[in-house]
Amino acid sequence: MIKGSIVALVTPMLDNGDVDWAALDKLVDFHLQQGTDSIVAVGTTGESATLSVSEHCAVITRIVERVNKKIPVIAGTGANATAEAIELTSAAKKAGADACLLVTPYYNKPSQEGLFLHYKAIAEAVDIPQILYNVPGRTACDLLPETVLKLASIDNIVGVKEATGDLARAKQLIDAAPEGFAVYSGDDETAVELIILGGHGNISVTANIAPKQMADMCLLALSGDATGAREIHNALVTVHESMFVESNPIPVKWALAEMGYMGYGLRLPLTVLQKSKQAEVAQVLRNAGLLK
Questions:
Q1: Is residue 161 among the annotated active site residues?
Q2: N or C: which end of the chain has fewer CB within 10 A?
Q3: pLDDT digit string (tens) for 172-182?
Q4: Which residues of the sequence carry a binding annotation for pyruvate (predicted)?
Q5: pTM score over 0.90
């Protein structure tokens, strides 16, 4: 089972929108050095919605090769078409990913039965560990706990990323899930509390810019040191908040550029962080010791 601090890695881009492969290698090395426990390649923070299928698969392959089995790589392979999700998941398995993360179908708003059949079809089509991903604030689709628990009976559906920030819901899942089924936070602001409740880790935006702090925080929470974990969390609260002053990954990519790890490139319809917000985010990063 994958545990700990799992970074939802950005996909660095050049000013013209092309993937910046050299910067991607640099980011992977940064996380290996800083103690990140696992990398999500091309999740929603990795701008999966604007990458072509071939680019999507190429980024997963590059990260798997660069990591070279030092830590697990989880490939983001969700889509709002079941056939496309199967295609991406198959490609991720072929590339050597350790698991896949599948966001709920977005925009088309399926029923709970539709969600169950969607995930069941992917699990049956591709024999690789699969993690469900619920983020209704972005997808307009809520994977309810009863559907998650029904899916948890399928052997290769091994966990869920619960990004609602609803700790009562997380507790319900943790208490009712079968042994071996992992519940991950997808919300940095409530991650410590979810892990203390019995969760298995945090799939994080903030870990892009503060990997060591997030890895230490998750380790302490998993070991039962709630006081130590909360101390690190409290020091990062304003950082978490600053990463959502505009739509993710706009702020975190700007922060990484300011820190010197990559350029400012994004793909339309996303644009660089508004100038009116740059000073605010920069000050938060300085206060946290992340930017000089």
A1: yes
A2: C
A3: 999 999 999 99
A4: 45, 203
A5: yes
